[in-house]
Write the structure tokens for this entry.
Amino acid sequence: MHPLPRLRPHTALAAAVTTATALLFAPASLAAPAAPPVYVHMNGANMFLENVVAVRPGQKVVFVNEDTGDHTIIGYDPLDGKTSKRFDGDVTGTPGAGHAVSTYTIAFAHTGLQFYYCSVHAELMKEPGGRTMPKKRPTVHGFGDPMAGLIIVTNDKRLLRDNPPTSREKILPDYFGG
Ligand SMILES: [Cu+2]
């Protein structure tokens, strides 16, 4: 029988501890970079400029209000018409460029479709067939479309690449206005 090779247990242990310590305390810069937020903008047109965006699970969506007026961002389920308690934000107006803007940030853990609307400028109504959809409030100015949108939470790289270029910028300098 061959003698067992001489181990150097102290050295091996020390190496293991060093590795574990390095992993535990690795600076954040060594970790995979988090995907940057996807921005959705509002102004006096009373619409969500990027009304359909795609994000990965956990990736932030930041709603940015560049309007002088207030808006809400409320999730709803088209199948039962119920609104979300968690996906429920509001953003106040801003006087214009150079002032602080009000934002609302949310992320979703799981893939799926997240519908939302602004309750100031749209209202949920049940359509024939039982589906609930937002409709433009009759008293609201702006375009004819209801103020509403959809977040697609997905890992599909092609969908993620389809976001409009404006969704990469927090502030759109020319988009202020109420
Ligand atoms: Cu609104």
Q: What stands out?
A: Residues 46, 71, 118, 120-121, 147 surround copper (II) ion (CB under 6 Å). The two ends are 88 Å apart (CA to CA).
